[in-house]
Amino acid sequence: MVDFLKGKTGYLLGFVACFGLVALALVIQTQYELEPCPLCITQRMVFMGMGVVFFISAFIPPASLLKKLFTGLKVLIALGGAGVAIRHWYLQANKESMIADCGVGFDYMFENFPLEKAFKLLFRGTGDCAAIDWTFLGLTLPQLALISFAAFAAYAIYLLKLNK
What CATH superfamily classification does 2-162 receive? Predict the structure, then answer.
């Protein structure tokens, strides 16, 4: 198994996994007719960004400083995504104390507010973000995303050590 992950293959697998999770989220969304909240959309964007970095990493020579920098970038992206997932999980865990107002949608925020205000609104979350619409093995989507972000950070470090 370890030989399979050496070289470009391991990084391309990370790329496919990141975009695969986004595709899975879209399947769940359409299958169950769910409307993603702003934090859900943000987590998807983080997965896609991390996927792009995994893809670029596949073409960087092993044991180079750039490979180490890109590994650090993947870990930082995963930590950022984990932060969004934790915030989302927090909102779900405390939905009783939240105002029932669902707030404005993702598109509306970025079309009608200055970028700084839109990001503040995005990370504050909305009533939609507190709703638990779907679970798998008793875990909500932000909990599953948090596990995935942690796994991708560990996987990025593992690939760096494997490809020395």
Answer: DsbB-like (1.20.1550.10)
